[in-house]
Specification:
Blueprint (H helix, E strand, L loop, with lengths): L30 E2 L6 E6 L5 E5 L4 E5 L7 E4 L8 E8 L4 E7 L12 E6 L5 E6 L6 E6 L5 E5 L4 E5 L7 E5 L12 E7 L2 E6 L5 E7 L5 E8 L7 E6 L4 E6 L11 E9 L2 E12 L5 E4 L2 E5 L4 H4 L15 E6 L3
């Protein structure tokens, strides 16, 4: 039977629950990012290095353990990278994977959406897998076999890449992935044991769970009800059996730019038995990771860009960004 999880200490990728142990000391509680970075997602490697994609610069920054500043690993626009979306560390292959989007608001040319890979050590471009049918590569996760799963924001489906594939393949397509008046489909993705979890772009009172059959194919889709409507669940991270950290970006919120929050859900069958707010009052917290007992998260501050559509000269300059963190409850 195929075993699924979000990879713990060995490959860490999105969770990296033990990433800091290699360095011996606890990770800092705040990490600096370049100005005007507008991050969308981040990952952390087995050695505690953070990788943060830029939605505006079409690039990826690296923050090494102990460093007092970030360095640009993947250069702006490299290999056609546009809006830097989901980021994933594939330590087994020595790769950094990132979704490239097409929303614009970038300092680099907008290219068709694709899943792209880069050398983890040097940032050199390696491969690009176009989204079929002009889909939108939003977020990604990896199972224990090394397979990559990708959410599509423009089509109700999850795609998969396996070693040797020359193109992304549709793994699961379902009407349940379409929700909300905005016309968008899926957003975040996480893997826990024999299930793949996804979130919808729209604000919804649930996550969705996809069963994984013994042969690796997709099974039934189940709605996992939450105690309240999630404020646009963006990144989601599984942290062991039946616990999920949800990054609620408040992307379509009507309560101002600081309505985002990070929450911890305890799952029990087809519902969440609890949903605890870890930190609130955030400006578009679209993603995060769990490392060394802390939840590290970003504030994307997209409202500063969206207010100037078609007027790049009006976008504020020298806007600060960083990676913040709070303690993860035991």
């Amino acid at each position: 039977m195929t075993s699924f999880s979000l990879r713990s200490a060995l490959l860490c990728g999105l969770l990296a629950c033990s990433a800091a142990h290699a360095a011996g000391d606890a990770l800092p509680t705040t990490l600096p990012l370049p100005t005007d970075w507008y991050p969308e997602s981040l990952a952390v490697g087995p050695d505690g290095t953070f990788y943060v994609g830029s939605w505006r610069q079409g690039a990826v920054a690296r923050i090494r353990p102990g460093a007092d500043q970030a360095e640009v690993l993947v250069q702006p626009g490299s290999n056609g990278l546009s809006n830097g979306q989901g980021v994933l560390v594939d330590a087994r292959r020595g790769l950094l994977w990132i979704c490239s989007g097409t929303f614009g608001f970038t300092t680099v040319p907008t290219r068709p959406s694709a899943l792209k890979s880069y050398d983890l050590a040097t940032g050199a471009p390696l491969a690009s897998y176009a989204m079929p049918d002009a889909g939108y590569c939003n977020d990604l996760a990896q199972d224990d076999d090394g397979d990559i799963y990708v959410t599509d924001t423009l089509h109700p489906r999850v795609l998969r890449w396996r070693a040797g594939d020359q193109a992304l393949q549709v793994w699961k397509e379902d009407a349940a992935f379409s929700a909300g008046p905005e016309g968008y489909k899926l957003n975040g993705i996480a893997i826990d044991r024999n299930h793949v979890y996804v979130s919808t772009v729209t604000a919804a009172p649930y996550l969705l769970r996809i069963d994984v059959r013994p042969d690796g194919n997709a099974g039934a889709v189940t709605r996992i009800d939450m105690p309240r409507t999630l404020k646009n669940a963006d990144g989601i991270r599984s942290i062991g059996p039946d616990r999920m950290v949800i990054f609620e970006s408040n992307a379509f919120g009507h309560d101002g730019p600081y309505g985002g929050q990070v929450s911890l859900a305890t799952l029990a069958g087809d519902h969440a038995s609890s949903l605890v707010t870890l930190v609130a009052g955030l400006n578009d917290p679209s993603s995060g990771v769990i490392a060394h007992g802390r939840v590290y998260f970003i504030e994307s501050k997209y409202t500063l860009l969206f207010a100037h559509k078609g007027d790049d000269a009006g976008v504020p300059r020298h806007v600060p960004f960083d990676v913040q963190s709070v303690a993860l409850p035991k």
